[in-house]
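For this section, I looked closely at the sequence of one protein beside the tokens encoding its backbone, which the following lines show:
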Amino acid sequence: PPTLQERPTLSQPVIFNPDFFVERLRHEHPQAFADLILSNITRLIDLPGDEFAQLTGESEPRVPSSSSSSSSSGGFLRSLNFLKRKDKGVVFGAPLTEEGIAQIYQLIEYLSKNLQVEGLFRVPGHSLRQAALREMLNAGAEIDLDTGDFHPNDAATLLKAYLGELPEPLLTHRHYHAHLKIGELTRFDDNGDKTHVPDKERQIEALQLLVMLLPPANRSLLKLLLDLLYHTARNQHINRMSAINLATMFAPHIIWPKNVLASDLQSNIDKLNNGVAFLIRHSQKLFKAPVYIKEYGRLYFTGSNSLQSKDDLTLCSGTKEGPVTALMAAHHSPITRSIGSEVSSYTESALRELYQQVNNMPQSAKKKKLIRQFEKQPLLTPSSDSRTPFSRKHWRSRSLGGIIKVS
């Protein structure tokens, strides 16, 4: 049992949110939070320099464009300056806001009561009823959808329309390439060679991290949407809408780049559809931070090596020395050494693999530059014995993705 000193007091309220310290880190130290998440994403997926720069916001996102708007260079990639446009409406066509989500939530709540409708999200609604409902939502009205004036198919069609008319896909253009790479994660055999078997655990972990990088409004709506689609798919024996059927309906609205045709995405359509189906099937796990991120956040703010209970976290303001000093002091605790050993082992293995790949490259200026980058980062060199997963000293150094970024 906890000692008297370890028990929560009236001045230390108990927080029933396991991700509390993660969210606190996000709001109080956004750059440190982003560095932490990005460094772990690059541990899981290989993003070339340009794609990594797009994910971090260092460069404008560039995604497949419509062949009808091809430039002299072929038009496959283009800048997304078209996003800088005026609002089209209060809800539909407007940038994503919490106010807009509050209006659209009326559709989501209504649909959650009508999951038994066959062909939900596939069968279109009545155009005149949809027009009236759209006008009411745009006006900010509170609507009683249970009166029978509207059909679930009306609400379902409007929900898809709302997502399709957002200036940017719900999953964002910046994350487009990362989602494609996550879908390619597969298991390794006993010889260390890649197989064709999807690595679901690593895919879920990578998606958990990627979701944490979404803007708050996108994250809120994505959770509401995936919860709805998850429960819709669970009723597929009644409504005939499986996860892949739903993904086929929603992928064009939440992940496809804007202003493209199916022909422009070529072989990526199946990857995108399967990726959205994966999001639906595993939605109940995606909005939880990985355990090592939670542990980092807790150690950062408390320096404590014990929890009040398995699920509860005690809110405290750290020590007199401040969160950074407390965190460094906590590095010597048994729990930190245990976690540090596990993370270091995992990181060392990944670094060895990356370092070997670089060494196996043909001799070139690019290879020499990559080797020099490794040598400049002793903390990230596989032979180093000085790594510490909880040290903030090197957070502002470039992550793995940044190290292999070549101009």
Observations:
- The domain at 98-172+202-286 is CATH 1.10.555.10 (Phosphatidylinositol 3-kinase; Chain A).
- The mean pLDDT is 78.
- The chain has two domains: 14-40+291-403, 98-172+202-286.
- The beta strands are 14-15, 62-64, 77-79, 186-188, 194-198, 313-314.
